[in-house]
Amino acid sequence: MELLSFLQEHILILDGGMGTLLQASGLQTGESPERWCLTHPDVIRSIHLSYYDAGSHVVLTNTFGANLLHYEDEELHDIVTASVRLAREAAELSTTPTEHFVGLDIGPTGKLLRPYGDLDFEDAVRIFSATIRYGLEEHPDLIFIETMNDSYETKAALLAAKEACDLPVFVSNAYGSDGKLMTGATPEAMSAMLEGMGATAIGTNCSLGPDALRPVIDQYLAATSVPVLLKPNAGLPRVENGRTVYDVDPDAFAASVADMVRLGVRICGGCCGTTPEHIRALSARVRDIHPVFSEPKSETLISSYTRAVRFSDGPVLIGERINPTGKKHFKQALKENDIGYVLKEGIAQQDAGAAVLDVNVGMPGIDEAALLETVVCELQSVIDLPLQIDTSNSEAMARSLRRYNGKALINSVNGKQEVMDAIFPLQRKYGGVIICLTLDENGIPETAEGRVAIARKILENAQAHGIAKKDLLFDPLAMTVSSSPDAALVTLTALRRIREELGCHTSLGVSNVSFGLPARDGINSAFFTLALEHGLSAAIMNPHSFEMMRSYHAWRALHGLDDHCMSYIDFMQHAPLQTTSIPSAAAIPKNESPTEAGTTSSSPLQTAIEKGLRDQAGLLAKQLLENTAPLTVISEHIVPALNEVGTRFENKTLFLPQLLMSAEAAASAFDVIRTAMQENQSVSARSRFIIATVKGDIHDIGKNIVKLLMESYGFLVTDLGKDVDPETILAAVLEHHAPMCGLSALMTTTVPAMEDTIRLLHERAPFCKVIVGGAVLTKDYANSIGADYYAPDAMACVRIAEEIEKAEQ
Amino acid sequence: MIRLFIPDTLPDVSHNEVLRYAGYRKSTLPDTDTLQYLLELSLPHIQGRICYDFFPVCIEGQQDMVDLGFARLSSHSLCQLLADSKQVVLFAATLGLNFDRIVARTAKTSSYDAWILHAIGAERIEALADAFEIMLRSQGYDITRRFSPGYGDVPLTLQREVFSALDCPRKIGLTLTETLLMSPAKSVTALAGVRSGTCDQSPKPSMHQCASCSLSNCSLRDSRE
């Protein structure tokens, strides 16, 4: 019988622990358990057999750590193929009167993925693929991905399995006592991502005993429509007379698991500390329980790497600001590959209250697919909001969805057949909720009837592709009310009909409605309230708009979604002032500390920078610009202040944190000046400085400090990030013909990569001077690896750069 | 058997220690408002976890060879440290990935704030390791001061054996890169000797022991001692 048909009618019983039984058979600490498939096949086979005989329907192969990080390719092949054969032989030897299946076991790599670790996502996919490919040679019945404690690695493993075969794939995560994965994901977030990607069954194993996993199981059962699996430890371990024992005995274990089977768990077994006795007891308890089939869930869910967003919880705000359309500085940043600019925009929107971020980087003259992928990866490394990937380029969509760590919003499809044909298969592969625009080959219908008809057409097409209704979000298109008086009414009618007749969630780009009108936020916020009243589930909007946010909070308060109106009150109390006053010079306190001596003649801006007052420095620069040339503000106010601070740092009368505060104050003044200047006009005639943390090093705090200081001194800094290939650094130096390059390394183990980079730069870009720094370096060490300069601290780097610049001129 | 130590709470943050890690020296006025804001921002994201195990130790007498039970190496520092010990306790501690994420997010808008967070992390990971030592002492273990791979003549490559002996990725989500960097970044691995006999349970004399360290040009050296 096929596994899936068997699962339809039975509670599927898995096996129990492998490690403890191997140790009892003589496996030594530090020895590789998987190698025993080759060296002790009889032991492995008999362990499998003991589980089948105890009542397991599925036994998992002895391949938990069998991957290319731990074994050479050839040995890996031999281990994995042998492991499946041994399980299959045991299945045939067992005389229990039931079906016997073999699951190919896939455990975690033990590595953290980039950017926090050093394993690339695609390398992780390749590592899992190799094990799965070898396993398939011996025809297992399913793939069992287990004990994963990071969502991104889980995605890599599931993707590898889905790309390699059509077998059922079970995915099991390990949760801590806080009910989350080590890297932060909740069961609901994992459920959204894994079900979206087509996992056959999902659930949890390891970490805790069955009772302690009950809250995790409850969340799975509430969130997912696919079968839920549970494979807990036999409680917690302790040492008794020199032996490790677990505190939950077979009967108690079986009783606890059986309780959860009655609630709806469909697949169960044991992990660390469980033995064939536990499985025997479990089998006896659950054998006659009729499977409880879970209701298909209709909740629309998207997720980030830590959390899920539910559309039934009230209106979802989608921040629209990561989009170059009509934004001069944003376009400039994208052209210069200044991802930091984009990230700041994302962080600001999250702080303003956005629950999801729309990400659009489409503009002429850039490689949109590569850039969108990069921006998505960078955003998800620092912002834990789900993303809405916004592109009409299907390659860009595919690459971004592949790398996205969660279940994304997909923006968008419409009624055009060719668009649906391109995007629906991507949703099937990577999961996601799709925004569906009600337009097609014939344009945007003028009537609500026409838009609802297109929505129906899209819904039917999606369902034919196997996409559930809950994974569609319909956008009936907000049109400009100034050119067509009934535009808003048509949209509102379509909105209500889609909610009521199709039972689907909706979304709108609200601000289109006010195009061409003055004080647009007035119209936008009124329309937003009306749309919410007509059943709008999500709005793509500007979370920095006071009126829009006020409408949102007011609507929630009026609908009883805001307990005691606390969110509304909180919002109004913290709402940004409508006008910001500029502090007068007198408002800045002077002579607070003895180090202030000698600054009495300085301007307010200079004082603000010296004192590290970030916000005030920006406002004062703005004030100065009203009657002072930008370059004069720089040369007569910013530079003298920085020189003063730099000198005090060098004299040790002021310390690194204060130097950083001053540099940030200078940077905020620079930002104001940059905004005031014409396009293509440069605020600085200083040299280009390339900076990177070398290959293999994932720390960037020191590099970031140097970058900040160099920028505040007006150098044009290109920051390549951390863990950067020598070739990438060379390419940037050549592209900018940069006269100087700064390299950072934290540990002795990454200095060789620094040395390689220096060698490459000296060979291929001899015009470029290399400055090095980092915790383990000394002047002598720097000399020995061929660096041109050694900077013991960030200020020293500025001085060296000034020296290099002088020599160039 | 590998055990876990996951304290519900840690001792209060020592502001002086944070400021010391940040590079403030006496006679300067720290920016306490920002420090307070950053503490409120970051402390909820700390998930301190420790995994640990005990191993028999044997000093072999020749060329400073020492067998730690999970690794064997030549180290004069360890021979001195472990002279009276029959056992070592080996542990790995981490504040978790969410703290790194907060630092990375903050760094995108302010390097100053990120730098102070970095100092908070340094103070917290030491506080976590201290809490672990206090827990062991309260159970009657008489332990030496802790010692990490990379200190003295103990090579950083010992990290590989430490990670495999403690199963760090699985137990506490702590991983090691090819270049022997730990991720999450705010993490510590260390061992301490367990002396025979019971401990007098007297409190530690000093939280940081700059006076006993030979690295005289260290930027973190506390001149107050």
Structure notes:
Helix content of chain A is 46%, strand content 14%. Chain A is an alpha/beta fold and 809 residues long. Chain A has an eight-stranded parallel beta sheet. Chain B is an alpha+beta fold and 225 residues long. In chain B, the strands form three sheets. In chain B, strands 1-2-6-10-7 form a five-stranded antiparallel beta sheet. Chain B has a three-stranded antiparallel beta sheet with strand order 3-4-5. A two-stranded antiparallel ribbon of chain B has the order 8-9. In chain B, helix 2 packs across helix 5 (111-138) and helix 4 runs antiparallel to helix 5. Chain B starts with a strand and ends in a 27-residue tail after the last strand. At the A-B interface, strand 8, helix 13, helix 25 and helix 26 of A face helix 4, helix 5 and helix 7 of B.
Task: Give the gist of this structure.
The complex is a heterodimer of chains A (809) and B (225). Chain A is of the alpha/beta class and 809 residues long.
